[in-house]
Input
Amino acid sequence: MQKNRLEAFSDGVLAIIITIMVLELKPKPDAAELTDLKELLPVFLSYMLSFIYVGIYWNNHHHMFHATKCVTGGILWANLHLLFWLSLFPFTTGWMGENHLAPTPTAVYGFVLLMAAIAYYILQRAIIKQQGRDSLLAAAIGKDWKGKLSPVCYLAAIPLAFVSPWIASGLYVFVALLWLVPDRRIERILVKRDKE
Output
């Protein structure tokens, strides 16, 4: 099967996720001064972090499918699995922000981040299984230290949220910063292939 429909569908879902998240930023009707927006700061900061995460997933998803020739039913289901966990971002983002980093919402946010990371890994493996161990994607991923470190940070942050939500949130920010620079591994492999 061609990958075009999967990419278009995924792009649409991610755009809707961002739209839903921004709709959670609701100022009070009687808040007419800039100082009144101070109450929205936790919601805005959680939105900003989640927006960055959605952007990271979109960017890496785009690169991954650029190195993918065709898709199978298994890849379609693995992609839907990833989109399911990403679709929970608006809920957990709003819950964490509205409750000013309370322990339970902060831990649940980390759980959703962990499950999205696992789903992304499953999608990568499904593509590599279909394309082969000598595929462009397999070569580009290599040892994938960032992909292995991220779930470890989420696993540490979930129980830490009950000790200090700020430390847990710091780990979420750390992982986002780790991935903020787009993953160039796939780009390098594709450029190398095009030069040959």
Q: What stands out?
A: The radius of gyration is 18 Å.
